[in-house]
Design goal:
The protein is mainly α. The protein has helices spanning about 5-30, 45-60, 70-80, 85-95, 95-110, 115-135, 140-160, 175-195, 200-210, 215-240, 245-265, 270-295.
Length: about 300
């Protein structure tokens, strides 16, 4: 009988392969033309720059910073991808690096399998079942609310760290009411992922506040995204809303970036990981609040 971990890997491959095959067939038909699937011409960007973007963004993604905001910022600064196809490009291009993250962390980081499977399933369910509802939520208010909540949470984690209340070794799983809380909150995190609010930092906070060992957050958050992204990627392909050359660069650069960062994280002591989490969550909270402020609708001036 297959172990729970092996079965999880099999299911992860099963949801990833269809997207990879569909993408490979599209690449074979289109060749190496530097156009996005929606027909828009891209600014001529050397392949090594696209690969470098993938390496840098996925390196920091593996540390828990997330890749969507950083990649979007670089794409807009360099004007390499039309804004209209950025979401699909990110999802498709970062899928394989994120899947590699999940394989690495689930393999080498100890975590209770029942907790891992339950929280991955809840995040996927939230994203799939909540997509229709959350599409009507105002993105700015969600960003502002999540940013403020993360600031409060990171303050609690900081106080624990300074007061030496954060144990080097905590439980690797959740049970009873704590597991129920974890599953419900991760369901909500899966829901808000559909409007582009990242899961990584909130998941780090969630597992920390529930008392789990800090490193246990990594396989949970990366496993959740590894199941979500290929399914979303197929939707973007069907809609022909992505830039294939840019997505290829993200993938080719992202895979070695993930490998290097995973080695770095897993070689760090738990207390150092806690400080890394504080920095990541603080960065995420501030960036959400700033984004919400920038998205504030301007008042209409009547003549």
């Amino acid at each position: 009988m297959l172990s729970a971990k092996v079965l999880l890997f099999v299911l992860m491959v099963a949801v990833t392969v269809p997207m990879v095959v569909a993408w490979a067939l599209r690449l074979r038909r289109s060749g190496a033309r530097s156009v996005d699937c929606a027909g828009g011409e891209q600014r001529s960007t050397p392949a090594w720059i696209r690969i470098a973007i993938g390496f840098v963004t996925n390196f920091f993604d593996t540390l828990g910073v997330g890749s969507y905001a950083t990649t979007t910022t670089i794409f807009r600064f360099l004007k390499t991808v039309d804004d209209r196809v950025i979401p699909g490009t990110l999802t498709i291009g970062h899928t394989l690096p994120t899947t590699l993250q999940a394989f690495i962390y689930i393999t080498i980081v100890r975590v209770d399998m029942a907790t891992l499977v339950s929280m991955i399933a809840s995040a996927v369910s939230g994203a799939l079942l909540g997509a229709g509802v959350v599409a009507r939520w105002p993105r700015r208010k969600v960003q502002l609310g999540m940013g403020c909540a993360l600031l409060i949470a990171v303050s609690i984690i900081f106080l624990r760290q300074v007061a030496d209340l954060q144990k080097e070794a905590g439980p690797l799983g959740l049970h009873g009411n704590l597991l129920l809380i974890g599953v419900c909150v991760n369901f909500l995190l899966g829901v808000i992922m559909t409007i582009g609010v990242g899961l990584y930092a909130p998941c780090m906070v969630l597992t920390s506040l529930l008392g789990m060992q800090s490193t246990a957050a990594f396989p949970i958050m990366m496993g959740s995204c590894a199941f979500l992204m290929p399914l979303a990627g197929l939707r973007f392909m069907k809609a022909e809303s992505f830039s294939s050359p840019a997505a290829v660069g993200l993938t080719l650069g992202g895979l070695p970036g993930v490998a290097l960062a995973a080695w770095l994280v897993t070689s760090l002591p738990v207390r150092t990981i806690n400080w890394l989490i504080i920095v990541v969550v603080l960065y995420t909270a501030i960036s959400m609040i700033v984004a919400a402020t920038r998205d504030t609708p301007k008042p209409q001036v009547r003549p």
